[in-house]
Amino acid sequence: MDQLGPNPFLFIGAVLFVCGVVCMTTKRNGIGVLMGVELVLNGASLNFITFSKFTPLGLDGQVFSLFVIVLAAAEAAVALAITLNFYNNHLTIDVDRGDELHG
Amino acid sequence: MTAETALFYLFAFLTCGGAVAVALTQNIVRMAFSLVLTLGSVAVLFLLLGADFVGAAQLLVYVGGTLVLLVFGVMLTATGPFTRIKSAPADVILSGLIGVVFLFIVSRTVTSVNWDKVKTDVSIGTHAPAVEPAFNPTQQGNTTRPLGLSFLSVRSDRDLKTGDQAAAAKASGIVAKPSAGYLLPFEIVSVHLLVVLVGAAYLARTKRRAAV
Predict the structure, then answer these.
(1) Of A7, A2, A8, A55, which is closest to residue B117 (Cα–Cα)?
(2) B172-203: pLDDT as tens digits
(3) Nearest to A16 by CA among B204, B129, B106
C-alpha cells in the first residue's frame, strides 16, 4: 500500500461522502436518509484510517475511527426508533410528510 | 502490479460502485444490499491499510449489527407502496450535479497537497515507541494490543515528550513515560451506548392506546 500513497484512499472517502450527501438530500424514504448518514460516517472513518497510515497521526486515527463506528451504531438505533415512531403515527416513512412543525 | 494493489483496485471499485448505487437506486431493499457491499468493501480497505482491529470491528459492528438493524427497519416499514417512494427527477439531477462539482473540488484539493512534505512537517511528539512491540510491528497490522492499551490510558505506541525532554529522559536512562490515552472518552462512549439502548427501547416500544 505504501507505493499508492494516501490520495486514492482520500478519493474513495470523498466519493463515499458525496454519495452519502446526495443520498440524504434526494431520498424521501426515512431509512434511505439514514443509509446516507452511514455512508458519510464511513467516508470520514476511511479518511481517519488513511491518515493514521500515511501521516504521523498514528494510532489516534484508528481510535477515532472506532469511536465513529460505535457512535454510528448508537445513532442508527435511535434514528430507527424515531423512524418506527414516525411510521406508527403517519403510516408512511416519507419524510416529506413530516411537516406538522412548519409555521 | 502486486496482489495488494490489485486487491485495492477491486475493493475500491466495489466501494465506489456500491456507494453510487445506494445514491441512485430508488428501491429501498436494493439500497440496503448495496450498502452491505459498500461497508464490507470499506472493511477490506481498512485491512489493506493495516488497521486489522478496526476492519474487524467494521465488519462485526457495521455489517453485522447496524445494517441488520436497518434491514429490520426496512422490513417493518416497507409495506406495499412504500418500498419505492420516488423522488422528483429534477431533484436527483440537481443534487447529482452539485455532488459531482463537490467531488471535483475535494479531489483537486486532495491531489494538490504534497503528503510527503506534510509527513516531515507535522510532528507529533517524538514518534518513538514508548514500549517496544512484542512481535510483528504495527506496519503489518497487529494493532489490537496498542489499541486496547490506549483505551486503558496507556500509550505503548507513542511518547509525547518532545525534543529536549526526550533527550534528557534518554540520557538519564529513565524508561519513557507512556502518554495519556483514551480512558475518559471510552467510559463516556460506554455510558452513551447504555443511554442510547434505554432511549431506543423507550422510543420504539408499542404504545397501548389510552382507553377512551
Answers:
(1) A55
(2) 665 555 556 788 889 999 999 999 999 998 88
(3) B106
**Helical spans, DSSP H, in chain B:** 3-24, 28-48, 52-57, 67-77, 89-111, 115-121, 144-151, 163-171, 183-204
Query: Residues B126, B57, B42, CA angle at the centre, nearest 5°?
Result: 90
ipTM entry: 0.91
Using one digit for the tens of pLDDT, what is the confidence trace for B25-55?
888 888 999 999 999 999 999 999 888 899 9
Q: Is A42 at the interface with chain B, CB within 8 A?
A: yes
- Rounded to whole angstroms, the Cα distance separating B153 from B141 reads 21
pTM score, whole prediction: 0.85
DSSP string, A19-54: HHHHHHHH--BHHHHHHHHHHHHHHHHHHHHHHHHH
Helix (H, G, I), strand (E, B) or coil at B61: helix
**Subunit contact B95:A31, Cβ cutoff 8 A:** no
Cell numbers linked to B103: 467531488
Residue type, B28: I
Half-sphere exposure (Cβ direction) of B26: Cα atoms closer than 13 Å = 13
Q: Is B106 on the interface with A (CB under 8 A)?
A: yes
